[in-house]
Every structure is written in structure tokens, then in C-alpha cells.
Amino acid sequence: MDTSVTLAGLRRLFRADLAGLLEVAQLADRFGVGQLVMPDHVAIGPRTDRYPYGRFPLPPGEPWLEPLTTLSVMAGATRRIRLGTGVLIAPLRPAALLAKVAASLDVLSGGRLDLGVGVGWQAEEYAACGVPFEQRWSRLDDTLRACRCLWRTAPASFHSPSVAFEELWSLPHPVQPGGIPLWFGVGLTRRNLERIVELGSGWMPMDSSADFIRQGVERLRTAFAAAGRPFEGFGIRAHAPLETDARGRPDLDATLARLPELEAAGATLVSFSLPHWVRSRDEIPPFLERLGEL
Prior knowledge:
TIM Barrel, 8-stranded parallel barrel, 40% helix
């Protein structure tokens, strides 16, 4: 099971120096961390109380770097580490533009991009981008299918309710055979299982308890088998459990001791959200070095 670091909640660690993330990327690359992940909000309104997964962990004024832009800069500063999104709100981007930006990043990074996708949760963000919130799921389908088409074929033609084009060349194609891996940050409803089986290379569950992952993997295996698609090579990115010591501070040793449970449940990648584990920038290098030793 490989390691991943999610770069969210940046204000506390970096304040106005968000370019300090480049040093984090270089350290993670040097120490052998498997993947860096950038989350996504194009814009965010004040109604964070509508967050569907409990209390939203950050204020509306938290800075959110655009993930593909940030990962492109990190790609030039690193050589080995994989670069991921988690999750990119794909319906907010025009399909042809998303396909081009992602393919360009994949080419220039030497095939290191993992595109974690979802639909987000805030209607105000969709309104700001001129995209109907109520169409977010159908737009996700159309966008990802159009990207896959553009990544694999030239000239490419595609027709759907929200995306259509005829005989377009969108080159270069991604370096990775078949296109960029798509990881889905979604619940395993019947329709989402169909999406994952059709398009997915991985799943990113919000609930990362061993029991939840085990049950999810069983459902995925069943859906893959029913569709005649092999499950081998499919990825599961779990959140590392945040164990604490007697003083209520994060306990990395106790957390690492629980990782075999996640691996046995089916997780192939475990993600650590950086601000949960370090209190200052000085703590970042030893933390990343410890993860790289796993």
C-alpha cells in the first residue's frame, strides 16, 4: 500500500507564502512519498453548513489553489511522485478544455497524473461557473466520456446532451496508455457503480473505516464481474485514520499501526491530509520522510 499526501487547509501552514508548496512537493518526491493530491473549489459561498458530510472543516475565506495549475508547477519541480486531484469538480470545466489541460500535464510530467473526480456539493459554485447544479451528474458523465474520447482518438467525434463535437484533433494525447486514470470520489450508489465500472481506475471513499472499505470492495467486485471487467489493478485510496495521544495530539505511530487493517480491507493507497499531522512548516520534512519510509 503506497502513501499519498493531500494538500488542503493551506492558510495555517503557509499563510501568504502558498508557493511554499513547491518545497513540499520536492521533499515528498525526494523522500519517496507515492502521490501528492490537490483538492478543488473554483469558488465557495458562505453556506458551508450545507456540506453533506458533517461540519465543513475550513472557513469560506480559505485559499484554494486551482489543482491542475498547481500540479503542473509541481510536475516541473519533481521527477517521480504521482500527481493527483481529490476531487476535481469536473462538471465545472468545459470538456474539451479539461481534456487538453489534463493531457498536457500528463505529457509534461511523464505520465504521472491521476484525475480524481466528483461533482462537489455547493450550488453557488455551479452558479458562478454558469453550470446548472441540478445537471451535475449528467454533466459529469458527458464531460468524462468526452475527455476519454479526445484522449484516445484523433480526429475525435462525440455527441451527448451537454457536449458535442465532430472530427476534432486534440493533441498531444496523454502518455499513459488509454488515457489518464479516473478516480471517483463518490458514494457507491447503483448509478455510481455503473460510472466506476465504465470509466474508473479507482475509488476514493469518504468513509475510510476498514469495514466500509471492505464492503465497498465487495460491491465493486460484484459490479465489475457482472460487467465482465477484471477488477485487478483497480485502486482504492483511503484516508489515514487520525489517531490521537493522551493529550489529543495526532499520534502517527498509532495511526501507522492501523494501516494493515486498511490494506487487508482492500485499500491500495492511504492518504494523509498534511495540516492534520503537522503544526508548522518545520515539522513537514520529518513527517514526509517518515511516510516515505513505509
